[in-house]
Amino acid sequence: MVWSASFAARLAALDAAELTDLLAARPDVRVEPVPRSFEQLAQRLGGPGSIVEALRLLNHDTHLVGEAIAVLGDGATVPAIARLLDTSEPAVHAELAMLRGIGLAWSDGQVLRLPERLQEHWRAELGDAKPLAQIAKPAYADDLRVTASAWDIPVAGARKPELIDALTEMLADPKRVAARIAELPNPARDLLDELRSGLLGVMFGYVDPRRSPVDVLVRAGLVLLVNRRPEVPREVAVGAWLAGLAAGLTGRPEVAKAEATATAADTIAQGAAREAVHILATLLDEAGRKPVAMLKKGGVGAREQGNLAKRLSIPVQTMPLWIDIAYAAELLGETDGGYAPTAAHSRWRAATPSEQWAAAATAWYAIEHAPLLREVNDDKVQPPPLPLVSEAGAMRRALVRTAAADGLSVRGVGGEIDWFYPMHGYDAAARDAKIAAVIQEAELLGVVAQDRVSELGATIVDANPDSVADRCAALLPATECRVILQSDLTAVVSGQPSAAVANLLAAAAVNETRGAGAVWRFSANSVRGALDAGWTAPELLAELAAIAHQPLPQPLEYLVNDTARRHGRVRVRATRSCLVADEAMVAEIAGTRSLAKLKLVRAAPTVLTSPLEPDRVLDSLRAAGFFPVVEDATGAVVVERVTGHLSDTDPIDPPRPTLDASELARRLVADPNGDHAKVSRAERTLAGLNPRLDDAELALLAHAIEHRDDVVISYRNKEGNRTIRRIRPIRLWDRWMESYCHLRGADREFTVANIEAVSPAR
């Protein structure tokens, strides 16, 4: 590609510091396999996925200058852009510095250039309009005179070439054209938009020029009739683009500093961060004991969210946030009929508070939607943790990044999000709702407190979980978990309990309150549950003594020992059901009125039988205050162990290795043309099968095949339909590539020649 060669030369001319800064700003191009030459670097920077990520860094003014470059094409010089946008050349230079710094623009002499795909994207608004000088050649002279007269150009005696030259000169001023367009009635302006986009011609073919509002456009000199068909010159399309701008370069809006001091905000944020970690740990512990129920279509429904919120003592409105974060952090995954902790959960549970918070906060920062605002079309709600297409994630990152940089008011930045992130595309109501949800989520996580990005929150901007954990270790030091066992048969737990402590208390007690000082209550039934699960009284008392910070209260010892003494005096053996106990106990059971429904028959002085299933007999006996155990057919006691549930979903692949910006810059400078780089066999094979892919795309696809990594492709099937697929190549054979397709959830075969673009999987 011509643009790539020119861009590659510009990249090669950067000094080491400039190149390193550019690579640091575009981390996606540092994902393995890294570019081996400046040519490949230009191709990676110009890839569609990379461009989209870079565009999300642009503010309103930078975005507008970039569009102006595309609109002006070969005439895109700094003076021309300044005239078009009615601003100063220094203001244009300031925005160009940002575009150049992130590799979205470069200078070709005096003319400014953009990556080809970005140029096409921004020029699409002009449609396929051609310059007036080109479309006027087949037009009748009389039709040209009509258009010229609309602009007060003398037409008497003028020949066709003279009319074309005069019209070209007149329409060369976009401001003049934009002013004329602004005077049009709405129907005519709408029609002009349809004509320049090509929709009207495609849908209806021939258009009667006498029909209003076409006639209005002709008489305004904005449309030229060519063989009785209306044509929009490119100069008019540029004027229409200019007329459609809500504002020119406005400069950065004034946003007030946050009123709260950093110290005050950080204190509140650290408390919120600890509470967030506690809630996630409690949620995952609960899911380990009993998987969170899943709807048939996937996700956690409103009823199950309500049940969870009640059991965990947290507001039900916030439940989608914690489910989404746990899933995004790969701590929660799918299992049969529900969601349960993944294998990564045990490592996270044993980590320090800073490591736990870093994993949760960075996962939230990367989510592409607002978990607290999951509404979709028709006011339906997409249940968590199902994915959701949204720009809320990009708005979140722009909000936190901007407010953190200068200690600005978070809500103040949110009020100006149209300038800081102009690509969101929402109307005012939807935009404000998403900003409000993002801020609420940030406050619950400790990223924001008192309208200020906290020191904790600032660590997640442009950082990975490991570096975040290191940077906030001093802000979230590990605190000792204290368990106080009281004589009223309660346990008060302060701090974050370990998984072992949480599991012990869950086995032998019932949680009454959660939070900073959680309260658990012991009862005969709760202790019986621990004994049913295989604990003995000495083991249970020893474990409780090990976690307590004072000697065991005597009432608790009495409760455990008394329950153990009574436990197992009644044994249920399947006949359907056979109850075995001492003679006194058998007599007591037989005389208990509430157990009459079991239809018990005394088969011997120490034996009762029932026609009902053992599970029902056990439940009824326990409800009546007895502590039975289960025996197998040989008389051996069956231990009712409570096993933790674990997700059987394969974890998402860890992020691909990313090379340090300075190291990649060093490699490129040392071997600018990639002369010493090795080209793999798969890469050469793919090049023969699909000559349209550039070297960088071939390298990405070959690396994915050789390492079984995910990659994103743009694919056109045999019917001509284009889709974007995230795939994991399995093998290459003949002209097909067998891959696991994440969109279809199954293996698929892709014709290599039909792959139109390749980009790294995020």
TrEMBL record:
InterPro entries: WYL_dom (IPR026881), XPB/Ssl2_N (IPR032830). Residues 698-758 form the WYL domain. One of its GO terms (molecular function) is helicase activity. Keywords: ATP-binding, Helicase, Hydrolase, Nucleotide-binding. The keyword Zinc-finger does not apply. Coiled coil: none annotated. This is XPB/Ssl2-like helicase family protein.
